[in-house]
Amino acid sequence: MENKQEKILEFVERIDNNDFGFYFFTLDTKGNPLAGIANIYEHVKVLNELGYKAYILHDKDDYHGVGEWLGESYAKLPHVSIEKKELNLSPIDYLIIPEIFANVMESVKDFPCKKIVLSQSYNAILELLRIGERWDFTYGFRDIITTSQKQGDYIKRLFPSVINHIIPPSIPDYFKPSNKLKKPIISILTRDQKSALRIIKSFYLQYPMYKWLSFRELRGLPRKTFAEQLGQSCLAVWVDDISSFGTFPLECIQSDTPVVGKIPDMVPDWMEDEGSTTSNIKLKNNGIWTNDILAVPTLIADYMRAWLEDSIPQEFIDGINASKDQFTEEIVNEKIKNVYGNFVQKRKEEFETLLKIEEKTK
Amino acid sequence: MKEENQISIIIPVFNADETFLKRAILSVSKQIVTPDALILVVKKDSDDVKLVEKLTKEIKVLNYQIVINEGNTNFQAQLNLGVKECKTDWFIFLEQDDELARIWVNNVIDYRLDQPNVNIFLPMVLDVTPADQFLNFTNEAVWASQFSDELGILDNASLLRYQNFNIDGMAVLKEAYEEYGGLKESMKLSFIYEFLLRMTHNPCRVMVIPKLAYKHVNEREGSLWSTYKKELSLDESRWWLSLAKKECYHLDDRNILYKKKD
Fold first, then answer.
1. What is the CATH number of domain B7-247?
2. pTM
3. Which chain A residues are within 8 Å of B144, Cβ to Cβ?
4. Based on the domain organization, do A142 and A242 belong to the same domain?
5. Cross-chain Cβ contact A184/B143 below 8 Å
6. Each residue of A289-311: pLDDT tens digit?
């Protein structure tokens, strides 16, 4: 009994001294840029800056890393390899698993640490989840970090007992307008490459007078190059039906680059206007939004004509400006600080309660 | 008015149609950024003198200057004289039958600040038929990927391959225009092409501003190009084009004349 009390006391002390770890299980993208992975690294970076010990947890020793596309400052963050048996979790540690890895959740369900799901893509939740199994009751994951209220609501419909914590991804400050005037270049980002090609080919066929306009596919570019190219473009095109948060249009907005976008299946929170309901969705005037993928070439042509003539409506520019700076690093870092700080505080309280119970029992 | 303006607009006037000239002058007066001066070059003792006096008063143009031309009155000579009389560092050239977009002077000033190494800014032009039907854009090609070495910049090698560029609405640094010789007065048909070839052969940076400067009515009856089309044979047209590629290496106008083949 003495030992148990001492152990609990030690845990409380270690929590007070930030002597515990946040372990973020991460997929190896083999050098391919992935927004979700960038966001995980951002959490790890901010937590380390806040004085916590946060780690990227990867499966294999030959983990490729993110240096090439996310930068050295991220690549140098602490990493832990499961294969190397570097992972030694205690009850005061935190294991954070991305939503897709239901199989990993199952394999760690008996671990003594605090377990959290980081759900950035609603579309991936059911990918590996076996029928009848649940994050909360089956695997013991009751705290969920997700990126938007809409996703949180969806998760709650699937697993009613979970507690959602919302941390949107931040838009780094290198997403900004170019210090040069915009060029007649159209940046394009689509979920799959075929969609981009279909739009480009269709645009040139329908509007041959614009055959001199260049499209620039941003897929696969290192983050800062991606931001630089976007900042130079006078227009961006976005097609991603299963997007969860809609990070790319927000990056466009920060870059003063208007977007022609296909409205995703889950309309992002920031895209919806006041008074919007499930059956009557009202969109903000912060992009050129359409439900019809076939209309995208026409919307591009219409916008380009207005851009060439300097006749972009002021209210559209105002709409874009009104949506700026909602997800700056400063705002999001504060959310990271609060959400993880609350986890720590709550965990400490749990151990303190345990200690009181032990003392009473004694 | 922006402090950095230092820009005049020159309109060479010759046998002008009142309706078109009035529109051209009105388009200057309606610029959202006012140019420092409007220079109208007219032939001495011609009807054009009375017309420009009437229109400038009617439209109440500020800072206009009527330059009386007593010498050669072809298009190139008229513009060269206007440039000689221009007192600002930069000038915009406007044909008497075209109308500048209201924001054009402002665009030129913005791009001048954005691209301080550029000496000549060409506009993008929307070509329409006399019935106002869209035909095509002009000067847009430099923005096509791999057209030239640098996107938006017209270089000599690209010009040797592709000659269809329009200088109406162009903004030019007066110093560069005079240093590299201006428009050659003895040349017909290909004088614009020769001018651009010469400028890009010399260290003169030419950029196309990706904004529409005006709507151009193609092959309007009475325009300089429709006159050339009527007057010049196919052989002579080809000869002038080929001459441009040779004469661009000479800064001086060498007064080479076309001789009809026997």
1. 3.90.550.10
2. 0.92
3. 211-214
4. no
5. yes
6. 999 999 999 999 999 999 999 99
